[in-house]
Write a structure and sequence with these properties.
Blueprint lengths: L1 H19 L4 H8 L8 H20 L21 H17 L3 H7 L5 H20 L12
Pfam families: DUF6691
Protein name: Putative transporter component
Keywords: Membrane, Transmembrane, Transmembrane helix
């Protein structure tokens, strides 16, 4: 049952990416080209996603727990540090250069284009490289009374 829901959600998400043009890097790059061939349609896609997410979160948070887990797993840190800002900037630069986000790129694997494979290999390499630049978490200290 759990796998069926995951498949259904992924299928709907992939169809949405395909219909919106997010799998086409030219459409994404034209959105960023505000002085040239600007295509504002991506803003409507993002706006629609924000509205659906806003409504979805309001409905989900009314529940005591998720459907398939005992508790919600929500990040607790609200720290904006160099790693967060640097990673966000790197993500944005990569998106602006390649015209792909990771999820649309995964959906675009079905197109058979080599650029998609190259992008995803680069993303995987970035994930692997990030393990070497992460600052180690200091061990928790116990206090005894």
């Amino acid at each position: 049952m759990r796998l069926g829901y995951a498949f259904g959600v992924g299928l709907i998400f992939g169809i949405g990416l395909a219909l919106s043009g997010m799998m086409n890097p030219a459409k994404v790059l034209n959105f960023f080209d505000v002085v040239g061939t600007w295509d504002p349609s991506l803003a409507f896609v993002m706006g629609g996603a924000v509205i659906v997410t806003f409504v979805g979160y309001r409905l989900v948070w009314r529940r005591d727990a998720p459907l398939f887990e005992p508790v919600f797993q929500v990040p607790t840190s609200k720290v904006i540090d160099k790693r967060l800002v640097g990673g966000s900037a790197l993500f944005g630069i990569g998106w602006g250069i390649a015209g792909f986000c990771p999820a649309p790129a995964i959906a675009a694997l079905g197109t058979g284009r080599w650029e998609v494979v190259l992008f995803l290999v680069s993303v995987a390499a970035g994930f692997a490289a990030s393990r070497f630049v992460r600052s180690p978490t200091p061990p928790a200290t116990e206090t005894t009374s």
